[in-house]
Amino acid sequence: MKPTLLILAAGMASRYGSMKQVDGFGPNGETIIDYSIYDAIKAGFGKITFIIREEFAENFKNIFEPKLKGRVETDYVYQSYDLTPFGINKQIERSKPWGTAHAVLAARDAVKEPFCVINADDYYGYDAFEKMAKFLTTEVADDKYSLIGYQIDKTLSDHGSVSRGVCKVDDNGYMVEINERTEVYFKDGEVFYKDATGEYKLANDTRVSMNFWGFTPAVFAQSEQMFKQFVAANETNPKSEFFIPLVADELIKSGTASFKVIPTPSKWFGVTYKEDKPIVQKSISELVNNGVYPQNLWS
After folding, report:
1. Which is the most buried residue in 54, 76, 194, 242, by most CB within 10 A?
2. Structural domain span for residue 197
3. How far is it, in rounded angstroms, from Cα 150 to Cα 152?
4. What is the CATH number of the domain that holds 285?
5. DSSP symbol at 67
6. 217 inside domain
7. Is residue 125 part of a domain?
């Protein structure tokens, strides 16, 4: 059974929704998401499932269906504020959805095969998709999941600090814990993070999560109860979000599932700051010039 690629795109609504020119990075205005889908198809994924906000479904389909028709199966699931599917009969006022792990739960009726999760607007590189496809077809189990571990120095911006999920990995390559460091940055070619207690150095090859996870559908049942508890604890905190690392941490600590950290040498890039955009365009143009991608991705 071919694995599914689940793309977290509900947060892209503001950019896609108005149907303004979607941020183009490739030679023909290709978006970062186009390159991820291209790599996933090449690596052997059988279906692309987009998690979006329902009001943007039509616009979204108009963008992606013409490109992907005949190349790969597509599906659309909707992340909403409605808590009744989880047996929670409350209206909780929020300005943004409940976070990445809640977005994954939105796909619980749509995805029946091993799958991986990525962010829509991050560039991951073909190596990551190839390794994840292999894991999802040969190793994954209901108690054995994975994430792609990027080298921290290959994920930072030169234009300010970023937030990174820093992984503690044991000698066998499994995650022991994941810590969200909200202020990570370069200083004189070295990597540091700051928290309330001070400034700390990290080795340049420290593994971080860029939200590229591998699961079986068992994770839906495993995380649903956690989500209910999260909502109960955060009703009055409209900025709180139910993130995938919270779920991973809980599954590891309870012994429910292990997470294999699959290392990749790929450079990750995304647009955290507007100054990052020309760098991303330059990186993609180099990949095209080196023959990693065709000049025109979908022609």
Report:
1. 242
2. 4-289
3. 6
4. 3.90.550.10
5. H
6. yes
7. yes
With a CB cutoff of 8 Å and minimum separation 6, the contacts of 92 are: 81, 83, 231, 235, 238
**The tokens 């814990």 sit on which residue?**
177
Going through the chain in order, the beta strands assigned E by DSSP cover 4-8, 47-52, 73-78, 115-119, 122-123, 144-151, 162-169, 175-187, 190-195, 198-202, 207-215, 258-264, 269-270
Q: Note down pLDDT in tens along the chain; length 299 residues.
A: 899 999 998 876 454 444 343 578 899 989 899 999 999 999 999 999 999 988 888 888 988 999 999 999 999 999 877 776 777 777 777 767 778 999 999 999 999 999 999 998 899 999 999 999 999 999 999 999 999 999 999 999 888 899 899 999 999 999 999 988 989 999 998 999 999 999 999 999 999 999 999 999 999 999 988 898 888 888 777 788 888 999 999 999 999 999 999 999 999 988 777 788 888 899 999 999 999 999 999 98
What ranges in 47-175 are assigned the alpha helix state H? Answer: 57-68, 100-105, 126-138
In contact, 124 and 36? CB cutoff 8 Å: yes
In the block, which residue shows the tokens 């990570």? 184
In the numeric block, which tokens belong to residue 143?
């108690």
Structural tokens at position 211: 């939200």
Structural domain tally of the chain?
1
